[in-house]
Design brief:
The complex is a heterotrimer of chains A (about 625), B (about 100) and C (about 500). Chain A has helices at about 5-25, 30-55, 85-110, 115-135, 140-160, 165-195, 200-210, 215-230, 240, 250-255, 260-270, 270-275, 280-300, 305-325, 330-360, 375-390, 395-410, 415-440, 460-480, 485-490, 505-530, 540-550, 555-600, 605-629; strands at about 1-5, 65-75, 75-85. Chain A has about 625 residues and is mainly alpha-helical. Chain A has a domain at about 570-629. Chain A has a 3-stranded mixed beta sheet with strand order 1-2-3. In chain C, strand 1 (about 60-65) and strand 2 (about 70-80) form a beta hairpin. With about 500 residues, chain C is mainly α. Chain C has a domain at about 270-495. In chain C, about 60% of the residues are buried. The chains are: A mainly alpha (about 625), B mainly alpha (about 100), C mainly alpha (about 500).
Chain lengths: ~625, ~100, ~500
């Protein structure tokens, strides 16, 4: 493999930015945002440079590596701090730094009134560095550092306004739920080391050819657990909605475009494990299928624009996970959907941020309405993203999502039928809730309060939105034209034979469009033809109520984990105090008690002492006498 | 005469002394009883010396006498001091350590 | 100057110097104490630089006849394990002096006495790790209790006398059992070629398994109290609650390491067979400590007690790493001891500053500190991240090594222990949220941020934590030969990869 000495700059530049901004403190307030943006942009430049270098080489010699130093080496456990850039990671590098830079630019304006803008940029740079380490690490342990690093950045950014207790709680919730997933990654690494003797991607790939299915299945399932935590998949999905407490650019960058897709990266990167472990692969598909419906259903009932988009993100990542679970044929489509989703969802989140910016940070869509007139650019960019997520040709989602639906149908047997129907249904629900978002926000009558004066956002904000909108329109076509992305990634994945095509691509597209049309129509009749109330109606069906409460996910977690955990904790605290320390204190009390009993002998009367001595002497003599007899 | 008789006498004297220490309250009497016990021991030592035919017992008896003499000096001094301070020579009254 | 005995004498000299100073000159006292500890740290670093990494024999060996009639020598020497711990102790000492600059005020005795005690304690900290004579080790092991007893009882807060007595009696109880075992060893050695207390000679003793088990327990219980392992832990929260932050750092950061150090140096070396016999039981105790300590930490309302319980959890990890008998577990445990010293130091330092500013150690009394005192809040946050073993922090490397080392031989134990990392997230993030986040609550509006002295004290701690998180090799290279030696002595080899052929 080729080595490259410039890979480290990808991480070092944003890390330097974060360090400087955090250490410099208030002194950097004036120029902090510029430094942060510059660091992100220069990382993007390094990424582009790497891409051009990579394009100039043949398929086999495209991956480049860089060994930085020996990190942990004990016995046979040897992990270098090493980086690896191949066809898969370059996609992520460009997405992270590209979208990341756009969001940096957007944030300059969006956060301009915030007292702590410098700190915000420091966190963003920290995130970029950690995320790049995640996708560049050449072993599972290096990935793990990035994996928890993005978790930390996410925690810091969700809790950026942590003076509000609810936001602080949201950030804590995200961190803890992510840690449960991280535990899965720890297990995967431990199993890999115990069974295969290595934790590097190359080593595991080589060793997996001789490993037992049981071991690979165990590793695969644990990797899936990790992915569900980071990517907000069922059953660790509950943190994502609350994560919307963070500033909107964060939601766009971390909780839509990049960090939450890390699970897809992990599964795709570990393709050699999942290909050899069908059970684990099946679980991946199941998790993806459940989550895509789960997220979509939550999305239908949310009045908070960001939470609706978050639910949509959850659902779309469900598509990607499902795609990645379909094996070699699906990996490339999962990545393609990931990239296009990165564009349109980031664009829509920025659009939501733009709306909030003009609406005094109001997030309730029931208080929006008729914003098309006041925010034409936001409407246009959001609308293009909307078309892309619906999968309307020729927008990006059409190329990526339809491919996943098609692959799902062609998975064969009942599995194919079920998955195909699930993905189609998901597309329909997606159409419904996204149309609802569009209608509630941009059309109809205005429902906002009098003191709100909606206005279009400044250039620095709408420019990134526009660029992302261009991506939402073109990226799908560019990536799939001549199977560009599929061929680009092909060397990384196992060969896959031609599946018997159950449904022609054209049929799938038509089916999908029909379902989408139904979804749009329902939303149209429900929200455009009827008066939308500014206050959410209470007399709704039980299903709506459940969906509003995120399908009871928090209630479930609270009832099953949190409350018993709290009970256990307080019981243990009391036990420690009463039983264990009580036993110790009991021994002490016993010593004191026996002392006070024996004290009675000390009468203070000389004659009683003398009598005791006499008795003692007599006993002693008696004892000696008995022994010598 | 049988040497054992001296030992019986010694034991008798010792017992009288010990009983006296336990039952009598007057410090002077208690003190005299202690002396009685010491001398009972001396008698035993001298007797054993005689039985064994060496001088060890007699030497120890002399030691005991010296110690007893010192004890008399210190002990009487204490008794006199106590009597002066509390107008009583009863050992039961001198139980300060208890209170 | 490369002599361990000289190194031990240096703090004593400083203590003498302080002893002859007039009581009134408190600043000079502190300056001399600081200078002494800094010099000791520098000399230790010089010793570390001269240490031959690949040599598994004891180095810097010195031995003088002490009590010839019992074959007792004043014998010192270090291997990688001892070096790392001495380095940790002597680097922590100046940080404790600087960080706790004012904590000697308001004590029962003078400022002078405080620093004399600290310096005497430092001598003993070096000696206890360097001793290669079992009797010398025992003497220092017990003598260390005295300065700590006075430091807790004389300069602490709250129920300081009760806590000091509890600490002392607990430790004396363990020490007594150890003394019995040491006498047993001495008697055995007399029957097998001459009375001796030399560690190397004693490790070749032939013993019946019953004898070995009994003697092992004597040592192990003493170390389990010191470490402290569940269920012998209840002295620690009380002691940490009452002691000053600086004393707590020395207590949890250094003194408790004597327990885990002793498990490797004495339990494993002297009683290999008994160690194997008791391993299943000890691993269970370690697991309970990990989970139990974490749950109790979550349930604490007091900041100092919370930190104490996190340490109980961490000591569970260390003990587990020691007894799983893999090179990863062993090296990880040693590295964990070093890292835990600094991560606990950071928590106690910053926690102590927070408490002294606020005048309360109840977590609920704080609130919104991040907006009032950003640097202090950040320091606490980073210390917490180190405690929950975030990758990039040194504690991650050691914790992960322990887990990996455990997994290759005891997968079930490793799986249960890994749940500890989720609990760790909770016990750190809950106080972080309550104390640092949220609106600034009443009583916290006017707290002052860290001053220059405090910044200088905390900066090296955090720098070491982060630097070793990314580049632990310098330490691992010192530790690895020593741990490999222990594992080999015990007759163990690392489990080979199974390829999943189970």
């Amino acid at each position: 493999m080729t080595t490259s000495t410039s890979l480290v700059y990808l991480i070092a530049l944003p890390l330097f930015g974060a360090t400087v901004l955090l250490l410099a403190g208030r002194r950097a307030d004036k120029w902090g945002h510029i430094l942060g943006t510059a660091m992100s942009a220069s990382a993007f430049a390094v990424g582009v440079y790497q891409l051009t270098q990579m394009l100039g080489r043949t398929n086999e010699s495209r991956p480049v590596t860089q060994k930085l130093f020996e990190w942990i080496s004990v016995g046979s456990f040897n992990v270098d701090a090493g980086l690896m850039l191949d066809q898969l990671s370059i996609c992520f590098v460009l997405l992270i730094t590209g979208v990341g830079t756009l969001i940096h630019i957007y944030s300059i304006s969006y956060m301009s009134h915030d007292h702590d803008r410098r700190r915000f940029f420091a966190y963003l740079n920290l995130f970029i560095a950690a995320m790049l380490l995640l996708v560049l690490g050449n072993s599972y342990l290096n990935l793990y550092v990035g994996w928890e690093g993005v978790g930390l950045a996410s925690y810091l950014l969700i809790g950026f306004w942590n003076q509000k207790p609810a936001y602080a709680t949201a950030s804590k919730k995200a961190f803890v739920m992510n840690r449960i997933g991280d535990m899965g990654l720890s297990f995967a690494i431990m199993i890999a080391f115990a069974t295969l003797g290595t934790v590097s991607f190359d080593g595991v790939k080589a060793a997996s050819e001789h490993a037992s299915t049981a071991a690979l299945t165990a590793i695969g399932i644990m990797l899936l657990v990790a992915a569900t935590g980071k990517s907000a998949q069922f059953p660790l999905q509950a943190w994502l909605g609350d994560a919307m407490a963070g500033p909107t650019p964060v939601s766009a960058l971390i909780h839509a475009a990049t960090m939450v897709t890390a699970g897809v990266y992990l599964i795709t990167r570990s393709n050699f494990i999942f290909d050899a472990a069908p059970t684990a692969q099946l679980l991946v598909v199941i998790v993806g299928a459940i989550t895509l419906l789960f997220g979509a259903l939550i999305g239908t009932a949310k009045d908070d624009i960001k939470k609706a988009l978050a639910a949509s993100t959850m659902s779309q990542i469900g598509y990607m996970i499902l795609g990645a679970g379909l094996g070699p044929v699906g990996y490339a489509f999962a990545i393609m959907h990931l990239l296009t989703h990165g564009f349109f969802k980031a664009g829509m989140f920025l659009g939501a941020g733009s709306v909030m910016h003009g609406m005094n940070d109001e997030v309730n869509m029931r208080k929006y309405g008729a914003l098309r007139k006041y925010m034409p650019i936001t409407f246009a960019t959001f609308g293009l993203g909307y078309l892309a997520i619906l999968g309307v040709p020729p927008f990006a989602g059409f190329y990526s999502k339809d491919k996943i639906i098609e692959t799902a149908f062609n998975a064969g047997g009942n599995k194919g039928i079920i998955l195909g129907i699930v993905t189609l249904l998901g597309a329909g629900i997606t159409a419904f809730y996204m149309t609802r978002v569009m209608i509630l926000t941009f059309t109809g009558k205005s429902r906002w309060d009098d003191e709100v004066h909606p206005h279009e956002s400044p250039l620095l904000m709408w420019l990134p939105m526009a660029i992302l909108a261009v991506g939402s329109v073109t990226s799908g076509f560019l990536l799939s034209n001549g199977d560009a992305l599929v061929n680009w990634l092909a060397p990384l994945f196992a060969e896959h034979g031609e599946h018997a095509e159950r449904l022609q691509p054209m049929v799938v597209s038509l089916l999908a469009l029909a379902v989408v049309a139904v979804g749009i129509a329902i939303a149209f009749f429900k929200y455009s033809r009827q008066e939308v109330l500014a206050i959410a109606p209470e007399n709704v069906s039980v299903f709506t109520k459940i969906a509003r409460q995120d399908l009871m996910q928090d209630k479930f977690n609270e009832a099953v984990f949190m409350r018993p955990g709290q009970l256990l904790t307080s019981a243990l605290v009391k036990t420690d105090e009463a039983v264990i320390d009580g036993a110790v204190r009991g021994v002490g009390q016993m010593a004191l008690g026996s002392g006070s009993v024996l004290r009675g002998i000390q009468t203070g009367f000389v004659r009683s002492y003398a009598a005791l001595i006499l008795v003692g002497a007599a006993l002693l003599i008696a004892a000696i006498w008995m022994v010598t007899q | 005469m049988d040497a054992a008789n001296y030992l019986y006498l010694s034991a008798l004297l010792f017992t009288i002394g010990a009983v006296g220490v336990v039952v009598r309250r007057n410090a002077i009497v208690v003190f005299m009883c202690v002396e009685l016990m010491l001398n009972a021991a001396n008698l035993a030592f001298v007797t054993f010396s005689r039985i064994n035919g060496d001088l060890n017992g007699q030497v120890i008896a002399f030691f005991t006498m010296v110690v007893a003499a010192c004890e008399v000096v210190v002990g009487l001094a204490i008794i006199v001091t106590i009597y002066r301070s509390r107008r009583s020579a009863s050992v039961d009254d001198a139980s300060l350590l208890k209170r | 100057m490369n002599s361990l005995i000289l190194l031990m004498l240096l703090p004593m000299l400083g203590a003498l110097l302080i002893g002859v100073l007039p009581k009134a000159n408190e600043t000079l006292t502190k300056q001399i104490a600081l200078a002494t500890t800094v010099i000791v740290a520098i000399v230790t670093i010089a010793i570390a630089v001269g240490f031959q990494r690949d040599n598994v024999d004891l180095q810097y060996v010195q031995s003088y006849s002490w009590i010839p009639s019992f074959g007792i020598n004043f014998a010192v020497g270090i291997d990688g394990l001892a070096l790392v711990l001495i380095l940790m102790s002597t680097v922590l000492a100046p940080i404790v002096v600087l960080g706790g600059w004012n904590e000697s005020h308001g004590g029962r005795w003078s400022v002078k006495t405080f620093y004399v005690l600290i310096l005497v304690l430092e001598t003993m900290m070096i000696g206890v790790f360097a001793a290669t004579d079992v009797f010398l080790f025992y003497v220092i092991f017990e003598a260390m209790l005295i300065p700590v007893y006075f430091l807790i009882g004389g300069y602490g807060t709250g129920q300081r006398s009760a806590a000091a007595v509890k600490f002392l009696i607990y430790s004396l109880f363990g020490g007594l059992l150890m003394l019995a075992s040491i006498i047993g060893l001495y008697v055995m050695s007399g029957a097998q070629g001459g009375h001796t207390f030399d560690l190397a000679a004693l490790s070749h003793l032939q013993m019946s398994s019953t004898t070995q088990n009994l003697l092992f327990l004597g040592f192990f219980i003493a170390f389990a109290i010191k470490a402290p392992l569940w269920p012998l832990h209840t002295w620690l929260p009380d002691a940490a609650d009452s002691a000053t932050p600086g004393t707590s750092i020395l207590l949890l950061g250094v003194l408790d390491k004597v327990g885990t150090f002793g498990m490797i140096r004495y339990c494993l070396t002297l009683f290999p067979e008994a160690s194997k016999t008791f391993t299943p039981m000890i691993l269970v105790l370690a697991l309970i400590s990990i989970v139990y300590g974490a749950f109790l930490a979550i349930g604490q309302r007091d900041l100092k007690r919370l930190i104490a319980f996190t340490s109980i959890s961490h000591f569970g990890f260390i003990t587990m790493g020691i007894f799983v008998m893999t090179s990863q577990g062993q090296s990880g445990a040693t590295l964990y001891m070093f890292n835990h010293g600094f991560s606990t130091a950071a928590l106690f330092l910053v926690g102590g500053w927070m408490i002294s500013r606020r005048g309360s150690s109840t977590i609920a009394d704080f609130g919104g500190l991040q907006r009032v005192t950003p640097i202090m809040a950040w320091s606490f946050f980073l210390a917490g991240m180190s405690s929950l073993a975030l990758p990039g922090m040194s504690s991650f490397v050691s914790e992960f090594l322990v887990l990996v080392g455990t997994f290759t031989r005891y997968p079930v134990h490793a799986v249960i222990a890994t749940f500890g990392i989720v609990l760790a997230a909770l016990y750190i993030l809950i106080p972080v949220q309550k104390a640092l986040h949220g609106p600034t609550t009443e009583g916290n509006e006017n707290l002052s941020d860290l001053n220059l002295r405090e910044k200088i004290a905390i900066a090296p701690v955090i720098a070491i934590i982060i630097a070793l998180g990314f580049y632990p090799s310098p330490l691992l290279k010192v530790i690895n030969p020593a741990s490999a030696h222990v594992i080999a002595q015990m007759g163990f080899t690392d489990p080979a990869p199974t390829n999943g052929d189970k």
